[in-house]
Amino acid sequence: VPALSVQDLHKTYDGGVQALKGVSLEVRPGDFYALLGPNGAGKSTLIGIVSSLVNKTSGQVRLFGVDIATDRDAAMRLIGLVPQEINFNMFEKPLDILTNYAGFYGIPRAEALVRAEEELKRAQLWGKARTMSRTLSGGMKRRLMIARAMMTRPRLLILDEPTAGVDIEIRRGMWETLREINAAGTTIILTTHYLEEAESLCRNLAIIDHGRIVEQGPMRALLARL
Ligand code: ADP
Ligand code: ADP
Prior knowledge:
By secondary structure, the chain is of the alpha/beta class. 36% of the residues lie in helices and 27% in strands. It has helices at residues 43-50, 72-77, 94-104, 109-122, 138-149, 168-183, 195-201, 219-225; strands at 4-12, 18-27, 32-36, 58-63, 66-67, 79-82, 156-160, 187-192, 204-209, 212-218. The strands form 2 sheets. It has a 6-stranded mixed sheet with strand order 6-7-8-3-9-10, sandwiched between helices. Strands 2-1-4-5 form a 4-stranded antiparallel sheet. A hairpin with a 5-residue loop joins strand 1 and strand 2 (18-27). The structure holds adenosine-5'-diphosphate (ADP) (2 copies). Residues 4-226 form the ABC transporter domain.
């Protein structure tokens, strides 16, 4: 079954803005998938619906075969979300941020410690595990956000413009962490308005504009046509 299957998705916000006008797409397990498009295209709305934060107007969304409309809790357990804004407590240490997050999801303390070490190493933060987060660099803070989302071992990691407004060095560090996560088997979907980012990271993509998919397919095939 696909990691994500979206069929004829429509979203009209209160007030009448038609953010999505019949979007269909499929993301295979293990894929690294980009939703590329300009501001206002509908990317955040699509991601919001997939992660059950925004209600759809019509259409169907399935995560690993689970319909989000009929089994929202099961669907939410399959995904990890990396919010755009850094929202952890700056006065906590990375290790505590990760284990507290795991605790919130009912993961036993011993298991949480094992996972935290693994995620901090993967995000190249193990050396900073017990450092006050406030003192971490911008790139480290961003990678900590990714590490935290991985604590629940999601099958699909979703990121909404993960590198918006960050400089190229920070972006490259985040890309490296994301590549490792994907190489270890987690499906990743990210939204971006940087073609360079989609090109560097993703195998498949959809280009979205004015609430519609205008192009869809393997990155390489698409680049050949641009
Ligand atoms: P993107 O993420 O590609 O920038 P969005 O999904 O944020 O696009 O927005 C798509 C359209 O929906 C835009 O016209 C935006 O102004 C509108 N929109 C987004 N969120 C809301 C909301 N909560 N209420 C009303 N309109 C919204
Ligand atoms: P993004 O850059 O992630 O698409 P935006 O800056 O467009 O986000 O929107 C920020 C927040 O404002 C989001 O929660 C979005 O849903 C909401 N929003 C965006 N456009 C509108 C709108 N036209 N009316 C009401 N809320 C909106």
